[in-house]
Design a protein that fits this description.
Blueprint lengths: L1 H9 L5 H10 L6 H7 L8 H15 L3 H8 L3 H8 L10 H8 L3 H6 L11 H49 L4 H6 L2 H18 L7 H4 L4 E4 L2 E4 L10 H29 L7 H25 L3
Antiparallel strand pairs: 1-2
Length: 299
């Protein structure tokens, strides 16, 4: 028993459902759990069969591609690619997709309806695990591409910030002035938050956020509390996107605002007014859009 528990703990969180699924279907099948834990060879999922199965079940439910996409909080183009056999969904999508279509995860992976037999043979269990491993591998590849895309965008933003800093120094601004008007501190905070929002923040919330009215989110050192907004997986993707846009906009727009303020009001260049303006831009630029998006997408 202890050996089995240690194996479960080594599994990634996204794979807990798969272990439970195999355990449920393989009760009494000798050696099947051993296969579930130790299998390492991958087999291909039939993308065309998978896509046709999704399309059939979607039409039986009376959903359009757009309606199904809205329920999964993705684009209808992604659903179209699944149904045409061009790509597969992320492994985290399997459970909500199966629930919406009224099928089991096993039937999704097999691309067909399965008669309830209560058990699966060892070979069936092995094939199911191989297919899920293949799907996880493809999802990891897509995740890497997405991280690379974000990295390029973030680096481009940092390059813009560096150019703006050179312009400010060229116009006679000193480190002391930039510290006094709050720009230096706000830029450092914007970059720190940007790294977290672009690369570390969770894309999905735990399921208990959907079942309860929770207005705060904590992840390590990061904590956000917004009374009046209930975080859940309906509005969280939009909030994350808004926070990413804000972090990039704050580090690139605020230096321009300081520069413009100094050109329009040279006498106030080192005054407290500059710091107040930049602080309002920094905080207001984050909280106001998040409130708007969180409230609009709460249902």
């Amino acid at each position: 028993m202890e050996k089995e528990n240690s194996t479960c703990r080594r599994l990634r969180p996204g794979w807990v459902w798969l272990y439970d699924l195999i355990a449920e279907y393989s009760k009494g099948t000798e050696g099947s759990l051993k296969i579930a834990k130790e299998v390492s060879v991958m087999s291909e999922i039939d993308k065309e069969l998978f896509g046709k199965f999704i399309q059939t079940q979607r039409k039986e439910k009376g959903y359009t591609q757009k309606e199904l996409a809205q329920k999964l909080f993705i684009s209808d183009k992604a659903v179209s690619k699944w149904e045409r056999g061009i790509s597969l969904p992320d492994i985290q999508m399997l459970i909500p997709l199966a629930e919406i279509l009224g099928v089991t995860v096993t039937e999704l992976l097999e691309g067909k309806r399965i008669e309830a037999e209560g058990r699966m043979r060892a070979n069936d269990v092995e094939n199911l695990v191989k297919k899920a491993l293949t799907l996880s591998g493809e999802a990891t590849g897509k995740d890497r591409k997405e991280v690379l895309r974000r990295g390029l965008l973030f680096c481009a933003g940092l390059a813009v910030v560096a150019m703006e800093g050179l312009v400010l120094f060229k116009l006679g601004y000193t480190m002391r002035e930039l510290t006094m008007n709050g720009l230096l501190v706000e830029e450092m905070l914007g970059i720190i938050f940007g790294v977290y929002f672009w690369f570390c923040i969770k894309e999905r919330l735990p399921s208990y956020y959907d079942d309860n009215k929770i207005s705060f989110y904590t992840d390590g050192m990061f904590e956000i509390n917004m009374p009046g907004i209930h975080f859940n997986n309906r509005n969280w993707p939009y909030i994350v996107r808004t926070l990413r846009i804000w972090s990039m906009a704050s580090i690139t727009v605020i230096p321009m605002a300081v520069l413009l303020f100094g050109l329009l009001f040279p006498g106030l260049r080192n005054s407290m007014a500059v710091g107040i303006v930049t602080l309002l831009l920094f905080l207001g630029g984050m909280f106001i859009p998040v409130y708007v998006v969180g409230s609009y997408k709460k249902e």
